[in-house]
Design a protein that fits this description.
It is a single chain. By secondary structure, the chain is an all-alpha fold. It has 11 helices and no strands.
Length: 193
């Protein structure tokens, strides 16, 4: 019965019916509180809905009950959750634990790279983002993020190459300009009253 409740939760999440997905996820966990396999998707839905504190609670409980098979994913989601909450130190700790448990995973490396870039560590961000690109080369967002880190380091030619790699991976991809470039663009094109 719990698996039947969990599956509609995922379907509802993708259909944009997040409140129902959360209700189904909580209903699935209630009769089987030991189930880590149900807590992780519920936490993912909660995080997507912006309920970061609830997601952290579910992930913490899942981590306590995990037998080690899902620890890398749980730590990665905890890192993402703490990052959204603004707790960079805890986010980095969990992301590094996720990477230690699954060195070939691209997502925790990409999230750690983005966090390091936000913290001003462009060299650390470049290292993590290069590893993420190596793990999942076909994702244009990773190439764009690497381009942002390289641009921050003043290595514009390499940044352009990374942005071009993003376009080769998906010609429809339009990289978001780095915050500094976006701010400069807005200042140049601001209307005067």
């Amino acid at each position: 019965a719990t698996a039947v409740l969990a599956r509609p939760g995922n379907v509802l999440r993708f259909a944009g019916r997040v409140d129902e997905a959360i209700w189904n996820g909580r209903a699935a966990v209630r009769p089987d509180p030991e189930s880590v396999g149900l807590r992780v998707p519920l936490a993912h839905v909660l995080l997507g809905a912006g309920w970061v504190a609830d997601a952290i609670l579910e992930l913490g409980e899942a981590l306590r009950r995990d037998d080690g098979r899902r620890a890398a994913r749980i730590h990665g989601l905890l890192g993402l959750s703490y990052g959204r909450r603004g707790d960079a130190a805890r986010a980095m700790t969990h992301l590094r634990q996720s990477i230690a448990l699954d060195p070939g995973a691209a997502t925790p490396r990409a999230n750690l790279g983005a966090l390091l870039l936000q913290q001003g560590d462009a060299a650390g961000a470049e290292r993590e983002l290069r590893a993420a690109v190596a793990a999942a080369d076909g994702q244009p967002e990773l190439h764009s993020a690497l381009g942002d880190a390289l641009q921050r380091l003043g290595r514009d030619a390499e940044a352009i190459a990374a942005y071009r790699a993003a376009l080769r991976a998906d010609p429809r991809h339009r990289p978001e300009p780095p915050a500094r470039a976006a701010t400069q663009h807005r200042r140049r094109h601001r209307r005067r009253i």
